[in-house]
Amino acid sequence: MNKLRQEYLHFLSFPRDMQILLLTNLIYAFVLPVIDIFVGAYVMRNTQDVKMVVIYQLAVYTGIPFTFLVNGFLLQHIGIKRLYSAGMLLSGISMAVMMSLGKLSIMGIGVAGLMMGMSFGLFWANRDFLALSTTNDSNRNYYYGLETFFYTNTYVVVPVLIGWFIEGTGQWGWFGGDRVAAYQIVTAMVFLLTIFSSILIHRGNFENPPKSDFIYFRFHWLWNRMQLLAILKGLAQGYIVTAPAMLVMLLVGQEGALGTIQAVGGILSAFLLYFIGRTAKPKHRIMIFTIGLGLFVLGGLANALLFNATGVLIFMVCLLLGRPLHDIAYFPIQMQVIDTVSAIEHRNKFAYIFNQEFGFFIGRLAGCGLFILLANNISDTFALRYALLIIGIVQLLSIWMAKRILSGCGQLVPTREVLTPQSPDIILEKQAPGLLG
């Protein structure tokens, strides 16, 4: 209890806005596993077509960058707290639209996917800026470690509870044995959580980004490297969201098993990730990054070699630990680059958050495209078996790119503030290495 109290006091030592943002994300963390896992399972169960699941995901990914663009203009007139809460609420509405469809057609799935993409666009665009503006490089490992601790635990608890609830509906005849009714009840619970998290975010004193241009086409060379890293990250995102649901429904067959697999090793990994975020320094990010990507390859290899329930179990355990490790390292690197390049180019930081979404989009499109290409030209089974391994091996290039990015940040000495009698404005100057000492 004394140790818990110490951790709580450590949490309270950070700025109030950072605390509120973390607590809001904690509540919304109960929603994300439902969206990531069970919406895909719902489409799979009602269409029996893995390509329909990927089409839904493509619609989601198409809606995200479009909404990032719209969000940039809306921030000129609407408070960021309202836009952030609108994104959370829209995710619940999108699920409700999906569950209300009698028969899942390509058109219906496309509309529901676009709405979900719009909700993600509003959520992530504003969440990334708020995380950037309420943290600094020294506390970002802790921020993402604690946030990942929340997400990892909910990705363990929520799938178990909801998976067995949906499966129990069919086995024990709850609600007349109608699984669709069970999905609808889950959707209603999700909507209530989004309302609660939307109320909490309004307790913070968050400021909008400055009213300035945010659309640019030419950037500093360091940011171009960061975009290549974003494409490689998006490559896995394009397929990893739907892959677990498709593999489990095909090789294991029940939503309850889906939840149980998510629970294996999850609690242990959550505490490990919190410890890493609590103790790791910026110099450890490449090592964390490498371990996360290595686990992804290991899981993809197990799935490719075994392609049975055991292979899925190994893959899910590797993913449960590898994915958050990758994120703990990636996002602080991203924010360090934004801090560095925005000072050099004198641009709104939201411009970089907006621009990076297109890097993610290109990668996601390539990941989904790879799966569809393999499924159409070879077979669905081949795509499910080998696409993960192919993507994991390609992603190993991220380690080399991340090293080059951090090396570039080290060469660009942090900016300094220069005040002159003639101009009280702050002038940000790029300095050559070694000239500030």
UniProtKB/TrEMBL annotation:
It comes from the Bacteria. Keywords: Membrane, Transmembrane, Transmembrane helix. The chain crosses the membrane at residues 20-43, 55-75, 82-100, 106-125, 146-166, 181-201, 228-251, 257-277, 289-322, 358-376, 382-402. GO terms for molecular function: transmembrane transporter activity. The keyword Transmembrane applies. Signal peptide: none annotated. Gene3D superfamilies: MFS general substrate transporter like domains (1.20.1250.20). The keyword Transmembrane applies. This is Major Facilitator Superfamily protein. The lineage of its organism: Bacteria, Pseudomonadati, Planctomycetota, Planctomycetia, Pirellulales.
